[in-house]
Automatic annotation (TrEMBL):
EC number: 6.1.1.17
Protein name (database record): Glutamate--tRNA ligase
Domain Aminoacyl-tRNA synthetase class I anticodon-binding residue range list: 338-493
PANTHER family: GLUTAMATE--TRNA LIGASE (PTHR43311), GLUTAMATE--TRNA LIGASE, MITOCHONDRIAL-RELATED (PTHR43311:SF2)
Assigned keywords, A-Z: Aminoacyl-tRNA synthetase, ATP-binding, Cytoplasm, Ligase, Nucleotide-binding, Protein biosynthesis
Function: Catalyzes the attachment of glutamate to tRNA(Glu) in a two-step reaction: glutamate is first activated by ATP to form Glu-AMP and then transferred to the acceptor end of tRNA(Glu).
Family designation: Belongs to the class-I aminoacyl-tRNA synthetase family. Glutamate--tRNA ligase type 1 subfamily.
Gene3D superfamilies according to UniProt: 1.10.10.350, HUPs (3.40.50.620)
All copies of domain Glutamyl/glutaminyl-tRNA synthetase class Ib catalytic, residue ranges: 9-323
Gene Ontology biological process: glutamyl-tRNA aminoacylation
Domain of life: Bacteria
Chief location bin: cytoplasm
Amino acid sequence: MSTSNQKERTRFAPSPTGMPHIGSIWIALLQWLHVKSTRGELIVRIEDTDRNRFVPESEKAIFEALNWYGITHDEGPDIGGAFGPYRQSERLAIYKPYIEELKEKGTLYPCFCTAERLQEMREGQQRDKKPTGYDRYCRSLPLAEAKKKMNTEPYVLRLKMPTEGESTFADKIRGEISFSNALIDDQVLVKSDGWPTYHLAVVIDDHLMEITTVIRGEEWISSTPKHLALYKAFDWQPPVFAHVPLILGTDRSKLSKRHGDLSALSFRDRGFLPEAMINFLALLGWHPKGEKEMLTRQQISEEFRLEDVHAAGAIFNEEKLRWMNGQYIKALPPQRFIQLALPFVLQSMVAKGNREMVLPVSGKKISNGLLEKSLLAVQNRLQQLDETGAAITTYLEPKDDYAGELLIAKKSTAVNTIETLKMLEEYMQTIAESDYTEEMLEKILRQFITDKKLGVGETLWPLRVALSGEAVSPSPFSLASVVGKQETINRITLASQKLSSQHE
Ligand code: GLU
């Protein structure tokens, strides 16, 4: 239990069983916020005792994700520390004497049940609609018989869970939680190859690493009584437990593959910004006092209190994340935005087979000026950086193979459209090059429409199509400001010729 003069220590304890999941990063963030808000320390410990589920690349991806999300730690296998080693597979010798201690105390008993027997037992329990769990068959074996069998048969060591009384603990998020001991399974603590299971290693390590607060997912609540039984057997003070809720999709079911790609690094690859991710994730199960939703990491860590995390499921709303990310993209300094967006543009060109980085239709090299202007024109409209490539295509090279009819606005005619395009062609000549900015063009052209008593749609539609060649595109003001005066006029000329040639 933490006392006031003891430094808070918590740990992120991922099992390297695959690519890190966003839910795992969310828990790491809560742990990080907790140590920031208490000036404590965050330890990373790799829980790799389950060799069947071990994935070698996983650990690297875990650190890559922590690093990208900016979740820093004070001790871990990568940076060392006074309580290492920080991989459970490297701590086997450390566990040995503790296993002996438990054996001597009679907290463990050998179990010789075969996989077949356990399977049959489970099927029987399911058939009788009873809770599944070990039936304690080997618990009552006479000591002498058990000792003899241990020399000849494979066995695991199970926890001799008390069968009477209650296990109670004060969860920092949920308040008091109680379990009737009789309902708790005699968990396997040491496997037949001598390796400890998670349940034993976690207790020994949390104790030896002087962890004061264990923050973990709610799926571990029912394991806590087993861990408490071990603390009691060792006569150790248990840490404080805080079980955070599950993350749910907007349909309120547990977040899963069905809800999209949830690997922590996929958010990076789709062009989310780490600041947006942190802001969004922090708000999943916790709310700041005020109404403000856009908060920096610093602001969040100043206000965060672990006990304020909600116990109810946290809803992961990707639409909201996209919106928030859009706000962060918009707020980026222009040069920083360009720097972050460019790799996504290159990636989308390469994906389309355009390794030379040329304009697909004309084959002309993309000029840096045009590229930069196009990027800045779309900065405010993006929600993910991986949308950049598609968003700037029209700016870089509008389509010129569109049908002339596309230029005709609803309720207008070819004759009127040709007339309008001619007027625009002439008028755009009179606008100074320096006024070719989105805001100025919008102001000037709207004034022109009013002065000439033209229809808004009847004027801006053909202008926009002339500049983009598409039915749906950015505004004509934005397009004209990026391509500049000469190109704007060229495109209007082309449009009016296209329509005239069809309607002569
Ligand atoms: N290794 C466990 C996991 O990956 C950690 C459980 C705990 O924090 O105690 O979920």
